[in-house]
């Protein structure tokens, strides 16, 4: 029967499989003996990954370790020095059935190639210069000196100072320190002079400078010109802003993240009281070098000077007012001073010695002590054109003075500016909050000269009168606001 034939054939197959399995086990036992890393019970080889790259498969860890030793030995013999390499090695078991094995020599050659690439043999010696976190990499010590010289020379026109490097080896790389000192010629000239002499007496870098010898790829090394440009910013230009309508120093400074004092320091000829017109150009950014230079210079010069003013208190005058009683005259003196600079900008001046050649005469002034009234009239002159109260069927909530466009408008009382700009029917207007909670409003202006958040003194100029908004002619509209309600200003004015 067919079923019986099939059964007999199945038994023959079964016996064949059993015999084959026995032979295979014997072969495995012979070919893969017990060892420190592999046993006859494991049907695995080892896939090798070195420094992140797969390099092949070996039958045991012993084969790999021998190949690694041989590759290291070849590199050390070729270079003539002992190179200690610590590669990242991963050995992963994998089923023998699916493994494609390489010979020990093939594995050794691949390890050799990868290790050679990871050594400094294929990289260039270089010097990394770190300046408080800003780094450049240069190809030689001479370039390092040239870079530091370039930063220094801008403020050492006579070349009286030089940069020297010294080396201290610690660990794998060399740490290099620098020193700035007077040249031998400059020091000899200074020693030949009797007493103290004028000139630069000290020069240093403000930033912490660290220099480390390293090995890097060629692409990481900057040329000397590139490094000098990056560090000194000598090829960068100032950023200029052109003023538009409504601009003043405080708004421009705020827009560029500056204080008014910083903005003024960037622009020669400007003061904190300067008025900016439409189209005026203002420097808002000056390139800051990555390596700042501090210079101390002794200088002897002659100058006119004033004696301290003598004040006489006068209770008939308001506080803040003064009058000259006796004009002073300037004196003349010779001064020796120690002046400190940061990147060429003076930061301090200490007078070491002075010789008065002509004595000054002090100016005498009267200074008012009388307390000012709470509020003062915000303009000088003008003619009263409308008072507080009912007008033309509506309530007029302030006082109007007719005056030419451009009349100076001043703060009626000291306080903080709440708003300054366009305010619908008021046209251009300024609102000031005062220390007692009252507010004042100045309307129909042609130009505002202050900005929100700014503190103003009594009688300080805040705007120019105009004819903007709902206005029938050039005038100033003035309000005093108490607890949110307009009141008659004349009850509060002097």
UniProtKB/TrEMBL annotation:
Pfam families: G5, LysM, Peptidase_M23. Keywords: Hydrolase, Signal. The keyword NAD does not apply. The keyword Plastid does not apply. InterPro entries: Cell_wall_metabolism_enzyme, Dup_hybrid_motif, G5_dom, LysM, LysM_dom_sf, M23ase_b-sheet_dom. Residues 291-371 form the G5 domain. Residues 239-284 form the LysM domain. GO terms for molecular function: metalloendopeptidase activity. PANTHER family: MUREIN HYDROLASE ACTIVATOR ENVC, PEPTIDASE-RELATED. This is Murein DD-endopeptidase MepM and murein hydrolase activator NlpD, contain LysM domain. It comes from Parasporobacterium paucivorans DSM 15970.
